[in-house]
């Protein structure tokens, strides 16, 4: 009797459609947000009492404890679940963390320098998009919705101001760490990592996946009057990842965007600079055009450098 050679068993991954993947990710994310919001509320209640808890969720910055409570709320109810959800999905649902999270460092450091330049030269483009966004109004029938969005955004702005009231350089460094680094990692793992990969599989088109993800990224923040500049950021972050194959290029860009806002705010508060971070009329029309041209050119350079690196590795 002839015995056949023993074949190594290779487990087969069950195929999950992109649509089901997306619904599953949304479900995990919502569940994580609810659970960790409850945990954050419990921590605030235990530390400061019911009144501060109520004031925190009402963005009542008159309460002296609300500033610290808002940081607890930011880290526990938002940053942690937004990081955990994509990791759980990539590891336990699709079992492909490398493909969905893209944590590889196999890219040339030159890309980080190009990303820095793109973020620097994109400031005028961001400003003009913000100004356009501010002039957008909803139809008269939706005026109630528009008023609600404006009030919600003003309340969120008050909360941000309370969190970013930085008395010392240590306050500034803490804000850079949380708002700049931790937020960048969590949001990029979720959006440019998992969500963009899902839509790439769904649409079979990297441009469609990038733009859809950018729109969802902006909508997630629920800030209508900064919707367009955030879509723009989401798009360039998306191309950074697609061309490099690494999530860390977009994390770096996201960190630069957030941390620069923190540092500028700190310097303005301490009268080290005169540039008001809320001033949206710093640049002129020529600067807007130059900014867009340079950003597109640098993005082309980024793509070429990234593609050349990939060919070298192959």
TrEMBL record:
Q: What is this protein called?
A: CAAX prenyl protease 2/Lysostaphin resistance protein A-like domain-containing protein
Give UniProt keywords alphabetically. Answer: Membrane, Transmembrane, Transmembrane helix
Q: Which InterPro entries match?
A: CAAX_protease (IPR052710), Rce1/LyrA-like_dom (IPR003675)
Membrane among keywords: yes
Domain CAAX prenyl protease 2/Lysostaphin resistance protein A-like span(s) in chain numbering: 171-259
Keyword Hydrolase belongs to the record:
no
Q: Which PANTHER family match?
A: CAAX AMINO TERMINAL PROTEASE FAMILY PROTEIN, SLR1288 PROTEIN
* Membrane-spanning intervals of the chain: 20-48, 68-93, 105-123, 172-195, 231-248, 285-302
